[in-house]
Amino acid sequence: MNDKPSRESGLQGAPAIEVKNLTVSYGPKPALLDVSFTIDKGLLVGVIGPNGAGKSTLIRAILGFTKRDVGTVRIMGAPAEQARGLAAYVPQKGSVDWDFPVTVEEVVMMGRYGYIPWYKDPGDEDRRIVRETLEMVRMSDFRDRQIGQLSGGQQQRVFIARALAQGSEILLLDEPFAGVDAATEKAILELLERTRRAGRTLLVVHHDLATAGMYFDRLLLIKQRLFAYGPPDAVLREELLTEVYEGKLHIFSDAANGKGAGL
Amino acid sequence: MIEALHYEFMRNALLAGLLISISCGIIGSLVVVNRIVFISGGIAHAAYGGIGIAFFLGFSPMLGIIGFSMLIAFVMAGVTLENKQRADTIIGVLWATGMALGIILLDLTPGYKTDLMSYLFGSILAVPKSHLWLMALLSVVIMGTVAAFYKDFLAMSYDEEFARAMGVPVKALYFVLLGLIALAVVMIIQAVGLILVIALLTIPPYIAERRAGSLGVMMLISIVLSAFFSLSGLWFSYTFNLTSGASIIMVAALFFFLHLIVVRLRSV
Q: A-chain residues within 8 Å CB-CB of B214?
């Protein structure tokens, strides 16, 4: 395969993600309009914004799953097209077929497929990486389970492991906290923080403003356009959120204090 | 049943049933997890056009079915990749057009067409030895291809977008898969006829999926189930003098509904 992911394609010292003038549209309606930002390495970044703001589209555009109308995306200094393996996608829970007959280990091994030619089977090196990755996300005991037989938190861990096995420097997660209980949410957050400590950069779509300020190093507030990018204090400002959420924000004062129950 | 084995046609039928089960289990599993049952039905029915062409031009109907169903399979693969939103409509049109072409060409062919019914409803009890060799060859092609590309098929079936990002040639693989479906359809038509192909292709994998932790296991269980349905269908057919294809499908359907009821009762 000629588009094999390679670490070497990234430049040393380059930012993790660099998006310039990104515009994406589905038909006549722009989903993203002239979005530009730069994310440094080793940050845990939350993407917030109301429903239909283009949060998922942003992630898909960075991954190259969605066609860009205008703009450039650079991953670790290299054009996104050449750096595909460097950025990995952790899908939204609802978009995965959980009944599919596939085991935990097989899903994580799929992260290695970019390194294995079509005529070859996974080798010792691939198996070692998968084993280590499963250990890191504490899923070794579940390696032979069919993925539908896992709890919500375990399912997230499998897909984070797949991204790590891929050797990715950047993980893009689409609502990892959607539909999980409080204990699972805490466990997933811990795993995200551990992944960041291991030097990875994470971009996480998040819908709960109440927790956004506590969970992330930086927040990216979008609604088609980029409204703010920076530390939570600078982004979670009332006048900014009122403008973006247009009155759909009822419990802002609680949310800003981190006590709210969400929107 | 044992005394029936003295007849060559019965031995051939059993062997055909087993060969068909192998292809059925492997390809049926891929059909079910890729949700392309409708396309498979389309390929099976459009195959009738191949029979029409073969009779009209006077060559082997088997050759006609193989050639034409492969052609239709590739057209359908192209259509589904190009026009995802309305692919089902176009598949439906190809489905009917293929059949209509077959019927018209057979109308235009003079002479008595004795074995047409066998293509529609199957004739596993009349499978000649030469077809067994062809079936064995097709089984080897199907097994070999799926074994060679197993990990790629798994990746594509499970998460097409991710597979593409990993450099799996998803488009090419999709054409290969539909081509293999055409080959499997050619075999299954022998057993149950083109009208009933979908049932034998999908019932065993559907039941197997609930019991399988991985795609490979799903294929194995499907093969065993297909063989069981084919052989017990044959027994019913022999013992009660019933049409063999329909008997096989009725056995499979019986287990399908039993399975549904058991699953439902367990979840209550």
A: 101-103, 106, 146
